[in-house]
Amino acid sequence: MSQFENVTVLKKANVYFDGGVTSRTVVFADGSKKTLGVMLPGQYRFTTDTIEIMEITAGELLVLLPGETEWKPYRGGMQFEVPANASFEMDVKTITDYVCSFVSASS
Amino acid sequence: MSQFENVTVLKKANVYFDGGVTSRTVVFADGSKKTLGVMLPGQYRFTTDTIEIMEITAGELLVLLPGETEWKPYRGGMQFEVPANASFEMDVKTITDYVCSFVSASS
């Protein structure tokens, strides 16, 4: 799937880490939400509210998932899942394009 | 208007200048196209194919429009128009969030 159809896109960008990570919020007809983002090389720590599924569209990075001690490599075509109310770290090696899906507990 | 509804969003990011400028393409029901972008501080030169209307959502920058010799300041809430088949320069001072509309000659 190369595009999302019949969606609402918020005009305002989400900007984190001085622009090192930026994203746009996309809302689907069922009310679910994804962000389409870009990460520049750098190290970033994020905290989740819901379960997050991070699908890497392009790029290369290392990820330290909650409760793990080993950084694991990810690249375009791969994805990882982060539990709700947890924090995870990313060490982005090349410009990374991603889609993040927010999964509410009830779904 | 804080959001665009009933649109298609391309999943892949547009990346220019090593990620200094990134955007997502949004396609409307009538086939018209906009990009929602973020520019980090830096100097950028772009060339247009169609008329482009650049609406600055947030941020501060200087713009040198084609045929002009004076850089003019723009900030969130302002917009400028660039003719088709022309080039323009931007000197972005703070992280800038924008919506770029591509206006085909027939409209």
Automatic annotation (TrEMBL), chains A, B:
One of its GO terms (molecular function) is thymidine phosphorylase activity. Signal peptide: none annotated. It is an enzyme of class 2 (transferase). SUPFAM superfamilies: RmlC-like cupins (SSF51182). Pfam families: Ppnp. Keywords: Glycosyltransferase, Transferase. Its EC number is 2.4.2.1, 2.4.2.2. It catalyses: xanthosine + phosphate = alpha-D-ribose 1-phosphate + xanthine; a purine D-ribonucleoside + phosphate = a purine nucleobase + alpha-D-ribose 1-phosphate; uridine + phosphate = alpha-D-ribose 1-phosphate + uracil; cytidine + phosphate = cytosine + alpha-D-ribose 1-phosphate. CDD domains: cupin_PpnP-like. GO terms for cellular component: cytosol. Belongs to the nucleoside phosphorylase PpnP family. Catalyzes the phosphorolysis of diverse nucleosides, yielding D-ribose 1-phosphate and the respective free bases. Can use uridine, adenosine, guanosine, cytidine, thymidine, inosine and xanthosine as substrates. Also catalyzes the reverse reactions. This is Pyrimidine/purine nucleoside phosphorylase. It comes from Paenibacillus flagellatus. The gene is ppnP.
